[in-house]
């Protein structure tokens, strides 16, 4: 395996500045998508809870707090609000009577599906305006960035959409 040469600090700084600009643009696009899905969108912290429960359904408050890097009392309040909105439910754990499991409700799953679809529409519309060469460069650059940070985004469970389709 070859060793990559040390990156140029000038090139790295320019790339970091461009990435910051793109991140800010994505934040604006993400907010537009969230606003379009619901008249009372959830906060960014609440959305992190929903994403976490989508990936790790049935976890308890302690585990959720560890995933989020948040204090148990903060996580509990977030879940209280999401439960009041009908997005999250707490249930008894089959493993321990003292623990509660957290799960997305059908309403919470539908919210995430709608949100992701709306955000994908916005992204597809934006990317469609790029040249094929620019789209390929974007894709290659994003893969390189993902590989450089050593973290792949968690994938959504495919069985969720199948379950929803069967119950409809």
**Helix share bin:** 55-70%
Task: Please report the total strand number as a whole number.
Answer: 2
| Helix/strand order, N-terminal first | HHHHEEHHH
- Which strand order spans the largest sheet, edge to edge or round the barrel? 1-2
The proportion of residues in beta strands is 5-15%
Assembly annotation: single chain
Please work out how many helical segments DSSP would assign.
Answer: 7
Largest sheet: 2 strands, antiparallel
Distance between the termini: 51 Å
Rounded average pLDDT: 80
Overall radius of gyration:
19 Å
Structural class: mainly alpha
What general form does the structure show?
A: elongated
List keywords for this structure.
7 helices; 168 residues; mainly alpha; two-stranded antiparallel sheet
Structural topology:
Layout: H1 9-37, H2 44-55, H3 61-68, H4 72-84, E1 88-92, E2 100-104, H5 106-128, H6 132-149, H7 158-167
Antiparallel strand pairs: 1-2
